[in-house]
TrEMBL record:
Keywords: Ligase. GO terms for molecular function: ATP binding; ligase activity. One of its GO terms (biological process) is modification-dependent protein catabolic process. It comes from Alloscardovia macacae. The keyword Ligase applies. It comes from the Bacteria. PANTHER family: PUP DEAMIDASE/DEPUPYLASE, PUP--PROTEIN LIGASE. This is Pup--protein ligase.
Amino acid sequence: MPQLRDSSNSGPTSRTLSVTPDTSFERIFGIETEYGLSVTGEKSATEGAKHGETKLDAARVASVMFEPVVAQSRSTNTYADNGSRLYLDVGAHPEYATAEARTVSDAVLLDAAGENLMAALAHGAERALQEREGEPDLRVHMYKNNADSQGHSFGCHENYLVRRSVSLRELEKCFIPFLVTRQIFAGAGTFRDGEYQISQRADFLDDTISSATTRSRPMINTRDEPHADSRLYRRLHVIVGDSNRSQRATWMKMMTAHLVLCMLEAQSRGEDYRLGVFAMNEPGFHMKKISRDLDFRYRIPLSGGVEVSAIQIQREYCDAAELFLQRHADELKPDMREDAAVCVQLWRRTLSQCEARDWTALASWVDWVAKYQLISGAVRRGASEAKGLQLDFAYHDIAHDTVFSALQSRGFVQALYSMDAVRRARHEAPRGTRAELRGEFLRLARQSPARWSADWTSLSAAPAQETRAVTAHILDPFSVEKTSEYEAVCAVLRGGRGEDPMLPLI
């Protein structure tokens, strides 16, 4: 029976790991997405009140949704074939955490694969509930957004492996202003209390950097679980961003963040990109103001006394990123170097389009603009506030995707990846990280009666009739080396292959 663990820094000791500082700009990227659930079309929801019946709640729907997962892995906490983690989080939120990716492009593709997997599980739950409840009109809706109709917020968390040389103080001074203003192109938009806002998460964030996650949400969570050598790296857990439907928006919010983090690492080695001049007091207050400023006129008072707009701040970061590439382009791997150059070019063009209020151009990939045009057009045609709210949620519904998919099919919003590529990514781990090793291990494990367990940094297996397990540590996220202990673990799985293997359902 497989067991899943959520390890932090387990693995080889210092005797087997180098402590030489990593002076490269390579990074590991990951995206954790929490999804919302709801049900419509139940007759019992409208007819049952007088009989004391209640409509299906999210917990019941999530439980049915994860039945195929439990049948395969004996748990609601498992890993998919591509090395990504799939689990049921607190509050009946299905969650998908992408496998370790060496490029932002890989992370975005894995995120799209997770969206496709979640939609498939939702469709399966819908069919099962229709049959069990005897209600053919029942619909299961799954939302890739950040708030439900009751005002509860759930997140899209970005993860970046960052060198320890970058201090939390520098992150607060130099990285937080970037995150606060990044929403002008990375926000998913929301129609709330009769008002349209740029960011779904802005109203729910109180602090800048802290260990809290619920009562007082920070923009960066300091939970220090690098899933790597903790002396060299920290895992920067960014929880300020919105869940994007647009693949380009997801790519841009992470590529721009990557470049800013590269500059901070370079500054820790003695360079100066003057990012500290953007330090601001009460960034949470300013984030909320920017979210309500659809014309980008709000002026942010910086700690130095100057007042600037979100566009101006982003332009300065973009200029600094261009300087960084001039200095260090040769140190980046070719694929990341090419992505970085494309990012800076699009970043600069996007800010000019924001300044010119060129909504048509921005709507081709900026979620909040695409959705704003959709809702404002409906309002001009006489739609009610309730209809606007309905369109808001429908834009994020991945199970019954009638709105966003229509925008893509008509060419209004551009996708980065074909559906064939997304489906393949559900079963293929990204290249160049330890996810390759985990993916191979999982494929073998699901064809073997051996007992096995897995987490981010270790893999274990034991023959069905034995209690002692063989374990392989995979602490280095950049390594794809098949060590002798990794081969030993796989040998246990190969040696225990049975005639009736567990089929890879996910």
